[in-house]
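User: Can you predict the 3D structure for this chain?
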Amino acid sequence: MIILLIRDGLGNQMFQYAFARSLQIETEKRLYCSLQCFNGDDANRKYALDNFNISKMKILSERTDLLIKFFYKVFNKIRRLKAVEDTKVYLDRNIINAECSDIYGLVDYSSVKFGKVVFVHGYFQNHQHFFRYADTIHQELKVKTEPSVENQKMLENIEKNNSVCVVFVNSKRPNSCCAKESATVEISNVFGDVKVQERCTAGKST
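Assistant: Here is the predicted structure, written as structure tokens:
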């Protein structure tokens, strides 16, 4: 089985799901989602994919998640012992960890023979990870719930005007302000007709 340790906000969660779902299609393993990160460093965030048309990923129960947390810590300690540098993507038969890598980089796992349990953790913001399954992922990342009255009014206002979405990022990660031009293509190709404009200034990406 594949266990996705999902984290951060909605955008990262969508990329993480798309990566794990693609891996699930290729390996034909069952896909489960761990929410343990939201009880730790991401306590101010929450799982945000429950409004999407996702049926191939099951959320682990709290009891099972505690057990998974223990096993992941063991695998992660082994990873840290084996890894040459913390900034490298770590791959072996039980773990894909791209937490410290360039978030736009490509994680190549084609030569890895995975074990029965595979932990997936990190950032996977490169459309090449899942472009072969883009049609499937498009369908699964469609919102299934009706918008609230407030959100419906906002949506109508957006559609009536030439609207622009501005995202401010202030992070200690060294690559956080190094937005690549391909990010716009990746988001647009994989998640739908989304228009993105990015600008880097003084450690902030807008």
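The chain has five helices and nine strands. The beta strands are 2-5, 31-34, 57-59, 90-92, 95-98, 118-122, 169-170, 200-201, 204-205.
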